[in-house]
Amino acid sequence: MADYDVIVIGGGPGGYVCAIRCAQLGLKTACVEGRETLGGTCLNVGCIPSKALLHASHSLHEAEHNFAKMGLKGKSPSVDWKEMLAYKDDVIGQNTKGIEFLFKKNKVDWLKGWGSIPAAGQVKVGDEVHNAKHIVIASGSEPSSLPGVEVDEKVVVTSTGALELPKIPRKMIVIGAGVIGLEMGSVYARLGSEVTVVEFLDDITPGMDKDIQKTFQRTLKKQGLNFIMGAAVQNVDAKKTKATVNYKLRKDDSEHAIDADVVLVATGRRPFVDGLGLEAAGVKMTERGQIATDHWKTSVPGIWAIGDVTEGPMLAHKAEDEGMAAAESIAGQAGHVNYDVIPGVIYTSPEVASVGKTEQELKEAGVDYKVGKFSFMGNGRAKAVFMGDGFVKILADKATDRVLGVHIMGPTAGELIHEACVLMEYGGSAEDLARTCHAHPTFSEAVREAALACGDGAIHA
Ligand code: FAD
Ligand code: NAI
C-alpha cells in the first residue's frame, strides 16, 4: 500500500498523458493499467496499428497503380501478410515501450493490474489498496455490440480482430461506414479483398460535411469499395470459415443477404467502466453510459474522468488534451480544452480532415456564412503525385470573415488541417490565412487558395 497525490486508472492516451503531466507538476503519481503494455486502445489496438497497416497497404497501392506512371517499371511487390503483421507489431512495441520509458523518466509508478474504487480516495489493485488524494478515471472504451451479431474475433471481428486476421480475406463485409470501417476497409481492399460496406444511414461518415461525404464516397468507390447504403443489419449467421449478413433496405423493407469470409463490425464504441465500482462510489453517469463530468470533475469530489469514458468525440488527442487539463486543474492551475477546435482525421488515401462547424450545422444555427473552396486539381504538387481528387473548403462568417470550419479531402489533409486549427484557436479570419505567404510547391497552397476564395477569389481556380 502506498499513498499518492494522484492515481490514474487506465494507461491510454488520456491516462498516460495525465499521469506524466501530474508528475511534471510535482505530484506523486501512479497509473493503473491492466493490459500487459501501456498506451491503451490507441497504441495497442487502435490508432497506431491501423496506421501501420494503412501505410503498408498504401505503399503497395502506389507500387501497383502509380509507379509505372512515373517510369518505374517492374514487378509489383507481393504481400507477405505475416511479415506485414510483424512490422505492425514492431511499431506497436516501439510505441508502448516508449510510454514505459516516459513513466520511468517522469517517476510515474505503473501499478500493474485492474483497478477499482472501493471508496473516494482509494484505489484497489489486486489485493492492495492505495490511497490517493485524487483519482482520475481514464478507462477508455470498447467496441459496441449489435443485436443479432455475435463477435468471435475470427469470422465476425471488431477492429481488434481485423488488425490480426490469420490471412487476408477474399471477401470482407464491413458493417458501418464510419472511421474504423473505412480505414480498415481501405486496408483490405488495397490488399486484394473484395470489400462491401453496409451502412444504416444514406451517407458515409455521419457528422462530416455533406460535400466531403459525397466526394469521399465517390473516391472510395473508384478504389473498389462497394457500398450498400440505408441498410439495417438484422443479424449475422456465422459458420466456421464464412458468414452471412442479413439486412433490410430501409427504403422498401426488402430483405437481402450477402456472404463473406470475414465480417467487421464497426458500428461505434461505448465507454468501458466494467469492474470500477462506480455505482457504489456514487459516480453519476449520463444516459449514454458515459461518466458525467464538469471540467473533468465527476459528481464525487476527488474523482475525475477523461477521454473516451466521458462525453465528446472518441479521439486520442481529445483524451490527451483532457489528460493535461485535468492534471493542471488538480495542481491548482487553469486546465483548458477548446472543444470547438478538435480536429478529426480519417487516414485513408486521400486523407479526410475536418475542424469546426460543417455547412449543415451553420445553416441549422442560422449563421450567415461564406464558402471558399479550392480543388487539389489546381495544385501543382498534388497533380504531380496523382492526388488531384479532393478539395479544401473553408467556411467563414459572412460579416466578420472569422473562420468557423475547415474541411479537407486530399493529400496530407491530416497535417494541413492544423493550419486551420491554429488559425481558429486565435480567432483568425480567412483574410489572415490568405495574406500569409505559403511555400511553393506545397499542398498547403490549396488551403491558402481556399482562403483567397473566401474573398476576391483564388488565383489558380
Ligand atoms: P483507451 O485508449 O481505451 O485506454 C484505456 C486503458 O484503460 C486501456 O488500456 C484499458 O486496459 C485500461 N483500463 C480500463 N479499465 C481499467 C481498470 N479498471 N484498471 C486498469 N486499467 C484499466 N483516435 C484518434 O485520435 N486517431 C486515430 O487514428 C484513431 N484510430 C483508431 C483506430 C481504431 C481501430 C480504434 C479502435 C480507435 C482509434 N482511435 C483513434 C480512438 C482512440 O484509440 C481512442 O479515442 C483513445 O485510445 C482513447 O483514449 P483513452 O485514454 O480515453 O482510452
Ligand atoms: P463511427 O461512429 O465512426 O461509425 C459507425 C458507423 O456505423 C456509422 O456510420 C453508423 O451509422 C453505422 N451503424 C451503426 N449501427 C449500424 C447498423 N446496425 N448497421 C449498419 N451501420 C450501422 O464508429 P467506428 O467507426 O466504430 O469508430 C469508433 C470510434 O473510434 C469513433 O468514434 C472514432 O472517433 C474512433 N476512431 C477514430 C479514428 C480516427 O480518428 N482516424 C480511426 C478509428 C476509430
TrEMBL record:
The residue ranges of the Pyridine nucleotide-disulphide oxidoreductase dimerisation domain are 342-451
Q: What else is known?
A: The active site is a redox-active disulfide bond.
Enzyme Commission number, as recorded: 1.8.1.4
Active-site residues (renumbered): H440 (proton acceptor)
Identification of the protein by name:
Dihydrolipoyl dehydrogenase
Kindly state which reaction or reactions the protein catalyses. Answer: N(6)-[(R)-dihydrolipoyl]-L-lysyl-[protein] + NAD(+) = N(6)-[(R)-lipoyl]-L-lysyl-[protein] + NADH + H(+)
Coiled-coil annotated residue ranges, if any: none
List ligand-binding residues for FAD. K51, G115, D308, M314, L315, A316, H317
Cofactor: how bound: Binds 1 FAD per subunit.
PROSITE patterns cross-referenced by the UniProt entry: PYRIDINE_REDOX_1
Q: Tell me the leader sequence span.
A: none
List UniProt keywords, sorted A-Z.
Disulfide bond, FAD, Flavoprotein, NAD, Nucleotide-binding, Oxidoreductase, Redox-active center
Task: Report residues binding NAD(+).
Answer: G176, A177, G178, V179, I180, G181, L182, E183, E199, G268
- Supply the SUPFAM superfamilies for this chain: FAD/NAD(P)-binding domain, FAD/NAD-linked reductases, dimerisation (C-terminal) domain
User: What does the entry give for GO biological process?
Assistant: 2-oxoglutarate metabolic process
GO terms for MF: dihydrolipoyl dehydrogenase (NADH) activity; flavin adenine dinucleotide binding
Indicate yes or no for the key word Nucleotide-binding. yes
Cystine pairs annotated here are C42-C47
Record GO cellular component, one term: cytoplasm
Domain (FAD/NAD(P)-binding) ranges: 4-323
Q: Give the organism, scientific name.
A: Aliiroseovarius pelagivivens
